[in-house]
Amino acid sequence: MPEQSFSDQTLWIVIIGLALGSFALRFGFLGMVGSRAMPEWLLRHLRYSAVAIIPALVTPLVLWPDATGGQIDPIRLATAMVTLTVAYWRKNVLWGILAGAVTLVGLPLLLD
Amino acid sequence: MPASTLHRRFARGALDSTPFILVAGPFGMLFGVLATEAGLNLFETMAFSVAVFAGAAQFTALQLMQEQAPTLIALISALAVNLRVAMYSAALTPYLGQASLLTRAFAAYLLVDQSYALSHAKFEAEPKMPLPEKIAYYFGTAAVITPLWMVASFVGAVLGNAIPSDAGLDFALPIAFIAMTGPMLRTPAHVVAALVACSCAIPAAWLPFNLGLIVAGLTGMLAGAQAELWFEARKERTA
Question: Which of the four, B62, B91, B96, B101, has the lowest number of CB atoms within 10 Å?
Fold first, then answer.
């Protein structure tokens, strides 16, 4: 069993909190029949929530990876670039993951 | 309404969702593997996938818990990643809002990218479709993907126990996040949102309590919304 770096209590708070929160987000508008339309400015910001938060989350992970003790690593930078390029070009998550995995594993072998 | 019509709608929804099997299957498995590598047992991993049922949000929460971010930050960030389902909920309300409360509650639980995208396109194309047929189609779109997500998480968790924990999976989560972003960059405004969020995340990384993520994410959202207005205004000028 791998070591868990956070407490079980934290885990269950997150699971239950996320379950309730996600349901509230999903049910919110569908649940309120005849609710007025959401204001356009709010919809406009919601449209960019995932495409902003995920890159914000991933940037430090790419620049300062844990595995290298926070040092910039050319292999992981290249992996990130290849993953993004392929996922964007093919409009497909899986092709991106595959290309990234091949780069991460293959590039060090190639450079050896 | 003949039952066969409803069955046909339901089957059609399920059939239309089959291309997404290729995404939900491997993605659910990846969650199972990484959750196990993070130290979750089988029951915890399954509780996560069944109760939350939101891929990107689950991955986000997992990452932040491993960074030992404050619990509140992990929750807010994962919910922020999932904010788009509120938009889906609003968009489906004109079509499904008249259904019974229980039906709407189930429909809400099953609201994910795939069920939204397929159903919204269908209801827009066939606005005259009666409500029961709409409901049948909607549940059809979720009928394959939802159990698949659970089963795939389970298989991933079992696999994760068999994989040694030093198998170099440290970068699997970043790769998954980056690959998720690729297809999201649909318009120039989406690209602006992502670029601004990335650039803000670098200086903001020194903020305490992983607040940098919230600051950079919000800045990216604002930038995306402003860019959309700007691009639209420019299109109107040139049109």
Answer: B101
